[in-house]
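User: I've been trying to design a sequence by hand for this structure and keep getting stuck. Would you show me what you'd pick, starting by listing the structure so we're on the same page?

Assistant: Good idea, let's start from the same input. This is the structure you sent:
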């Protein structure tokens, strides 16, 4: 797959901060963006809390508790956040129009071979990709809460997703010690949510 070095996470809430933290722990250059400074401050506190817990459990050295959050670039400017990202992962509100609007903006803001992923659990990748001129670069990467502790990530390509995009994310997640599964068909609720229901 392609080489992923820089990752932008859009949305610093429940899932976003946790996803950004995990990428940073894995050694990636991470930028986290949200609409307000307050949301970013809150994300920072949550990360420090998560990292203290991991450190207390012996899964992380004590220095990482400050080092990891300090290494994450935080900004309220989406354009700056995604400008040179190889992978953009959105974890914003579960509202299709808001997400489609974002994917349409990302089209203009991202470098042309960036992978655009959504952490949605409600919407099909094709309904996001159709807001965008590069549906081959778009897919769903659905995490479970808490994202940095649950290893499962469901990767849901649309019929238009390029095979190398899927392969790149499979390799990325396996290297990080996650457990990526590919959902071959766009089915609402994907696998785990359907099983719970």
């Amino acid at each position: 797959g392609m080489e992923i070095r820089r990752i932008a996470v859009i949305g610093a809430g429940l899932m976003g901060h946790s996803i950004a933290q995990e990428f940073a722990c894995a050694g990636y250059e991470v930028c986290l963006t949200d609409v307000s400074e307050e949301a970013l401050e809150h994300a920072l506190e949550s990360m420090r809390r998560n990292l203290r817990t991991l450190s207390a459990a012996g899964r992380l050295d004590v220095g990482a508790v400050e080092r990891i959050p300090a290494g994450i670039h935080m900004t309220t400017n989406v354009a700056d956040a995604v400008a040179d990202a190889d992978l953009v992962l959105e974890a914003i509100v579960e509202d299709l129009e808001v997400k489609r609007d974002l994917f349409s903006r990302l089209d203009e803001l991202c470098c042309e071979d960036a992978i655009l992923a959504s952490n949605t659990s409600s919407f099909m990748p094709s309904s996001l990709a159709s807001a965008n001129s590069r549906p081959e670069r778009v897919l769903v990467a659905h995490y479970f809460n808490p994202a940095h502790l649950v290893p499962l990530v469901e990767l849901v390509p649309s019929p238009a997703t390029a095979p190398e995009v899927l392969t790149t994310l499979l390799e990325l997640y396996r290297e990080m010690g996650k457990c990526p599964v590919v959902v071959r068909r766009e089915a609402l609720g994907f696998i785990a949510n359907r099983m719970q229901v």
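That's my pick for every position. To get oriented when you compare it with your attempt: The chain has a mean pLDDT of 93. Strands lie at 6-10, 29-33, 73-75, 87-90, 115-118, 138-143, 152-157, 179-182.
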